[in-house]
Fold this protein.
Amino acid sequence: MTGQPTPPRAALVLLAAGTGSRTGHRTNKVFLPLAGRRVFVWTLDATAHDPGIGPVVLVVRADEVEAAQAVLAREAPGRDVRVVVGGASRHASEWSAVQELLPSIEQGEVDVVLIHDAARPLSGPRLFRDVADAARRHGGAVPGRRQPGLLHRDGLAVRAGEAVGVQTPQGFTARELVGAYRAAAEAGFEGSDTAASIERFAPQVRICNVPGSSTNIKITYAEDLFLAEALLARSSFDVRRLGPGAAGGS
Amino acid sequence: MEEPEYADLTCTACGRTAEHELRHVGRLLATTTCTACGHVVEVVPRSMLTGYLHDLEHRVTSKPVRMVRRARRDPLRFARELPGALLRQPGKLLDELGTLLRGR
């Protein structure tokens, strides 16, 4: 024992409650197999070796808690992941996760919260580090990629560099995030994403843009699964080779 | 061919977010079918062969680690299920290869 205090770490929140159907035999898409693992497990892999990332909270639907725990036991043994039940909206799920992290935040063990869509399995480790570092410096950080060639509805082209496609993880300093979500709860406000609540209830926080990654796709279309599989095969199924800083990933 | 899985995905043909049937060969996705409009996305079986062999290599090399993990998690269940799993493997691999060579 050196007596050195442990530096605070970034908590990772994986949102998996808001995707897929709530009825029938359908699988929530983040539980689909992707090159031998479930979609959300690739994010756990990407962050497994980063000492700066601490507690992980996986937010799932009430009827998927058992399935989530079984996948974690099988595919991410030894990884400390807290499974919590999400709400009816993305905002409510985020609030559930933030409440789970409250003790760690209040004790100073967690200084940044990274909120990530579990349907984005190929972010790569570097993006989590970049977002956490930028959030520490500025208060908030959101990855994005310029979207050239977009058109307005009336057909006029959007000028190059004006439009940015927003990705996750989105990172915020933990205390400001808690303050904003408490204020949102009191006001009955539900933001469409994390940044919306911060902008409204913590306007002093500067949210900066971090370069996103071309491999950071969100599994939305059926074709995305084929693409994700091909990207993983190209990286020899090592997700640490994907994302910013990796070949072809910026 | 593995048993199909079902998930809500957005269809590029009809634009609806609907149930899709997903079929895999080994660990690789082979076809998706939109149950709303019938739109099928598939990889031509023979063209999957290279990817399949690459994936198979990864499956084989990572197998010992996965087996140790399974044995540690539940030794009794592992010991009980191992003989059956070993006996099933050749047939499973032949079935996967057959699917790729014959087509679906």
Notes: Residues 124 and 242 of chain A are 5 Å apart (CA to CA). Chain A touches chain B at residues 19-21, 24-29, 32-33, 35-36, 73-74, 77, 219-226, 229-230, 233, 236-237 (CB under 8 Å). Chain A has a mean pLDDT of 88. Helices of chain A lie at 41-47, 65-75, 90-106, 125-138, 174-187, 194-201, 222-234.
